[in-house]
From TrEMBL:
One annotated GO molecular function: serine-type endopeptidase activity
Protein name: Serine protease
Any matching Pfam family: Trypsin_2
Keywords per UniProt: Hydrolase, Protease
Lineage, uppermost ranks: Bacteria, Candidatus Terryibacteriota
GO biological process: proteolysis
Length: 283
């Protein structure tokens, strides 16, 4: 070493430094390649999994299960609702148009089938004139003569009979099980427009009393009524009040549109009239 010149010593130091630096670089690259991925990359992967990528979805109407059930009940119950008209069917044919029907028949109210063999429930005041004849128009636009089987002496209830069978009908519920706050659906037939009307609300009162104008007997008080917070549409009288099981729990009878309330007779009040009608038909 003593024989080395100053220049050679400097070159040797530089060479050792270069070799050392090169070796350090190689070791560092090797360690990085073999080491786990950086923590920031790991975090980004976790975030990526938590936040899903944007997915293109075709636009469609979303109906919640409760709403879907309500729509189904209304659709099925509407098939059993009829328009009650004053008149006869002798001048009506299969080709008679709605406009011609309007000229020949007078809208009176609504009703609904309670059996597949043609028993129709309605209000007494709708068919109160015993000198007139009545016709019902079903949801599919067909017309049938309707015989008045009974008019209740104590309630605004009447039972009609339509000849035929396999009619869509609404099963009867139990009005004793009605609770304030439950959903109620009032259906009817807007006879002037030949289409069903629907009001959905909640039962807001029980055992109510309301005055109804009967065109045949004048003003009369109706008692034990179901009150709902939905105004009765024109023509709803005589139509069914239905619960969320699709059963008739009442018969729409009177409404107060300005107060946005309607009233219905509990279906249990019509049970005897319906039973008597079945007995009469069988005999």
């Amino acid at each position: 070493m003593e024989s080395l010149t100053k220049t050679q010593i400097v070159l040797l130091v530089l060479l050792v430094s270069f070799v050392t630096s090169l070796a350090t670089g190689i070791v560092t690259v090797t360690l990085v390649n073999q080491a786990p991925q950086p923590i920031t990359h790991t975090i980004s992967k976790v975030v990526e999994k938590m936040v899903p990528k944007e997915v293109l979805v075709k636009e469609k109407t979303v109906i919640f299960s409760s709403e879907e059930n309500l729509v189904k009940i209304i659709k099925e119950a509407s098939l059993a609702v009829v328009g009650v008209m004053v008149g006869t069917t002798k001048d009506l044919t299969a080709t008679t148009t709605n406009e011609e029907i309007r000229k020949k028949l007078t809208p009176s109210g609504s009703g609904f089938f309670v059996s597949k063999d043609g028993i129709v429930l309605t209000n007494k005041h709708i068919v109160g004139d015993e000198t007139l004849e009545y016709v019902v128009i079903t949801s599919d636009g067909k017309t049938y003569p309707a015989a008045v089987i009974s008019r209740s002496s104590s309630q605004d209830v009447a039972v009609l009979k339509v000849e035929g069978n396999n009619f869509n009908f609404i099963p009867l519920g139990n009005s004793k099980n009605i609770n304030v706050g439950q959903t109620a659906i009032a259906l009817g037939s807007d006879s002037g427009e030949f289409q069903n009307t629907v009001s959905v609300g909640v039962v807001s009162g029980l055992n109510k009393t309301a005055a109804a104008l009967n065109s045949f007997s004048g003003l009369e008080d109706l008692v034990a009524l179901i009150q709902i917070d939905a105004a009765a549409n024109p023509g709803n009288s005589g139509g069914p009040l239905v619960d969320l099981s699709g059963r008739a729990i009442g018969i729409n009878t009177v409404g107060a549109p300005r107060e946005n309330i309607g009233f219905a007779l509990p279906i249990n009040l019509a049970q005897k009239d319906i039973a008597d009608a079945f007995k009469q038909i069988k005999n």
